[in-house]
Design goal:
This protein has nine helices and seven strands; from the N terminus they run H-H-E-E-E-E-H-E-H-E-H-E-H-H-H-H. By secondary structure, it is of the alpha+beta class. It has one domain. Strand 1 and strand 2 form a beta hairpin.
């Protein structure tokens, strides 16, 4: 049974990969540049610097390394001295029933839970994105969690998954959210790309050299290579000068003259 569940999850993961590739959220080079900045070592404490938000609270969006495509969840709380987290709470959206519930949820909706499992908090974090928030935004996060819990959402790999929940929280505090049909390991970098100007600048710097290298080079141009019009030959365009008649008059004895001589050794003149 466990083998069948893993096989079903793998097949659906391949289908989700195809859907994610058609969304066009970020280019491959941009995603690699953002992911390289958000890679973090396994730990339960937030690590990345907080983005400016002007408040005494924070929220951190995380992607954990588990299964085929990972798992996304949030950590949030109050900031202490030096802008470091002084408290932390966690929330996510995952199917009940462990591996079996996950496999069934790829076919039909299943019951969901919003309290992260202990195992989730010990998983390696592939990427994270922390943001400082105000007290009002902190209250909106709590209200979103309560609303999702009260609506008794069911977990579905395609309809409402962990990325969908994270996206609802992000939009509640005025952020932009990518499509939920992404691997969680790609969703958090995409979320950061949409909401962090420094991430977009870094990705643009990584994409620009590759674009310049891929651009076709133009052939060098020179005056010698430019086509020139052929000028017509002077003999073909100019008119020939009229020539005198080549008919010679009849030769008579009177018209034959001796060639001029300048010495005594000249040959004798012959008269016909």
């Amino acid at each position: 049974m466990a083998f069948a569940c893993r096989w079903a999850a793998a097949c659906t993961a391949l289908a989700l990969a195809g859907v994610a590739a058609t969304q066009g959220i970020v280019s491959p080079a941009a995603a690699q540049a953002v992911a390289a900045q958000t890679v973090a070592a396994p730990s339960a404490a937030p690590r990345t610097p907080a983005a400016p938000g002007g408040g005494a609270y924070y929220i951190e969006f995380r992607a954990a390394d588990i299964g085929v495509y990972g798992h996304s969840y949030i950590a949030f709380g109050r900031l202490g001295a030096g802008g470091r987290p002084a408290s932390v709470q966690y929330a996510d959206f995952h199917p009940e029933g462990g591996t079996l519930g996950l496999a069934v949820g790829h076919a039909v909706p299943v019951a969901a839970d919003m309290t992260p499992e202990k195992e989730t908090l010990t998983l390696p974090i592939t990427s994270s994105f922390r943001r400082a928030i105000t007290a009002a935004q902190y209250q909106k996060i709590l209200a979103t969690i309560q609303r999702v819990h009260a609506n008794n959402h069911v977990w579905s790999a395609l309809a409402y998954n962990c990325n969908s929940f994270v996206g609802d929280v992000a939009e509640a505090i005025g952020m932009k959210a990518p499509t939920s049909l992404l691997f969680s390991t790609s969703y958090i970098p995409a979320l950061r790309y949409l909401n962090d100007a420094s991430a977009r600048t870094a990705s643009a710097s990584a994409v620009a050299p590759a674009t310049r290298a891929a651009a076709p080079r133009r052939a060098p141009t020179s005056a010698a290579a430019a086509p020139t019009a052929l000028s017509p030959s002077p003999a073909a365009t100019s008119k020939r000068a009229p020539q005198a008649s080549t008919v010679r008059p009849p030769i008579t004895r009177a018209s034959v003259r001796a060639p001029a001589t300048s010495s005594a050794t000249s040959a004798p003149t012959v008269v016909y």
